[in-house]
């Protein structure tokens, strides 16, 4: 692919052109290559550097899988179970699709991993299918939409279809949050945080890429939620139910939840407004 970078000239005074590849035929399909080429040319016209964005914005399947493994370490039953989870991907998925950009992995690529072992190692194939699905689900873009935001009430209502627990979740918005999102209305997008493509949401993997750019070790995306939970309980002294509901976790038994129907929005707002922002800033 050849891209002309806006504003830069070569020795002869002509626009500077940079050549770089989009990936081999065994990794990127022709249609995917065409789509990326068009997108990178558009970025170049806007004064962006496609090569920089290409190398940082689209992690590989292996990158995402390893990050998911790290993020979920606290949830494993034991260390052995966690190691088995990543070993299955290492043995049967990474050799075939590990180097592929995560947004290039589709049904055909998944079948390429499952096909050779589906008959002889059926149980392993079933576990592999579930683990690949977990990685791909994490990488899906699940964007915050303007129609879900009530600036007057300072509230974001995340609908049930995008919540892991299948129940809508109300999120109180602080002054700092509003200061970030209000200027984004000028983008006139369906999504609050728009991705590189018009009217497409920012990918869930953007935080992973941000951490990679910062070159920090031992920091994970899931760690931000863990940090909040520790702060809420140990520093802010928030009641357990307030801290857990802030993370959209269910509290108590089915019977208890049947009687305690409040989501404690006002108490959660107070916790975030008066305490958390001061701790972070």
TrEMBL record:
<dbReference type="InterPro" id="IPR050808">
    <property type="entry name" value="Phage_Integrase"/>
</dbReference>
<dbReference type="GO" id="GO:0006310">
    <property type="term" value="P:DNA recombination"/>
</dbReference>
<comment type="similarity">
    <text>Belongs to the 'phage' integrase family.</text>
</comment>
<dbReference type="InterPro" id="IPR011010">
    <property type="entry name" value="DNA_brk_join_enz"/>
</dbReference>
<dbReference type="InterPro" id="IPR010998">
    <property type="entry name" value="Integrase_recombinase_N"/>
</dbReference>
<dbReference type="GO" id="GO:0015074">
    <property type="term" value="P:DNA integration"/>
</dbReference>
<dbReference type="InterPro" id="IPR053876">
    <property type="entry name" value="Phage_int_M"/>
</dbReference>
<keyword id="KW-0229">DNA integration</keyword>
<protein>
    <submittedName>
        <fullName>Prophage CP4-57 integrase</fullName>
    </submittedName>
</protein>
<feature type="domain" description="Phage integrase central">
    <location>
        <begin position="61"/>
        <end position="146"/>
    </location>
</feature>
<dbReference type="GO" id="GO:0003677">
    <property type="term" value="F:DNA binding"/>
</dbReference>
<dbReference type="Pfam" id="PF22022">
    <property type="entry name" value="Phage_int_M"/>
</dbReference>
<keyword id="KW-0238">DNA-binding</keyword>
